[in-house]
Amino acid sequence: MLQWIAEGEEDWIVVEQPMASDQRWDAAFSGMQWVGRRSKRGQQEQERREREELDKLLEQNRLRVEEARRREAVEQQEKELERYQELELLQRQKEEAMRRKKLEEEAERANQMKLLGKNRARPKLSFAIGLK
């Protein structure tokens, strides 16, 4: 990990990492190693790279959010389609049950008419015609 330490008009770049025991500095700088100076052009280049890296991270984050929204929309659409199909199935079952009930009622009426001896196939006779 790089750490920048300002010193006058120039900055020093140091790396936080353990050093070999024979390269130790005094206690204040223990664990830091001098790497070099950062020039203005180097500083601008570093800032540009950091901006590019940040832009790249932002773009990756935007793409992840977009993909998550897309997946959520697809899941919602699938749930709605499943619910619609369930409602269609329930409606068909209800209509089928009503149709069967109607057929059963008609069959029951036909059975009752047979039991009572009244056949609808016979024409109705009017008693009023024969009394004149």
UniProtKB/TrEMBL annotation:
Keyword Coiled coil part of the UniProt annotation: yes
Pfam families: ARGLU (PF15346)
Source organism, top-level taxon: Eukaryota
Record InterPro entries: ARGLU1
Keywords of the record: Coiled coil
Coiled coil start-end: 40-120
Record-given protein name: Uncharacterized protein
Organism: Platanthera guangdongensis
